[in-house]
Amino acid sequence: MAEVTWPEEQLITAAQSGDLDAIAAVVSAAHPNVQRFARSLCADAEDAQDAAQEALIILYRKIGMLRATGALASWMFRIVRNECLRRARRRVHEHTPVPDIAVTASAEHEVLRRLDAGRVAAAVAALPPDQRRVLILRDIQGYSGRVVAEVLGIGPAAMKSRLHRARAAVRHTLRATTGTGHGGHDEQNNI
Q1: How far is CA 118 from CA 23, 56, 89, 112, in A?
Q2: Rounded to whole angstroms, what are the CA distances from 92 to 43, 72, 88?
Q3: Labelling 99: which of 87, 108, 111, 164 has CA 20 to 30 A away?
Q4: pLDDT digits (tens, 9 = 90+) for 106-158
Q5: Which residue in 92, 96, 91, 16 sits closest to 59, CA to CA?
Q6: Is the pLDDT score of 164 beyond 90?
């Protein structure tokens, strides 16, 4: 595996000060890492390419907003992650079919489904940030445990521990709000 390198602090400092040559050099040096982030986070190659380009444009335009020169990698990771999420959400909305009246079992069923989704979303939102991130990356976005641990900068054991605590907290919250759940089934099987 190739060594991951980022621009040196002096170059980043010069770029933050508005030196156009330094900005171009920082963008150029960050490009391979940004592409690697995008390929690991986005759903497909086209989205990865678009997210990487958008992140580099943001870097070019807003490098002066970077607070610490050592934070470039984490800042770029957040930008790429947000771009990939935005593109994934847009893709889901574009491809979500409008339900046919005959397909929907009943208005009551649809209301209950939306209430359940809202309860799960609220339970996930109530998690501490470290648990919420690991749960979203692993269970919602479907990344492997290895990738999640790498993205979060933690070991596999720590990732598994956080994921276990997050799942248990969501189950506990869901049980506390409805007893045993709708229709007599246990929400543990849904998470």
Answers
A1: 44, 35, 17, 10
A2: 11, 30, 6
A3: 87
A4: 666 665 666 666 677 778 888 898 898 888 888 877 788 888 888 888 999 99
A5: 16
A6: yes
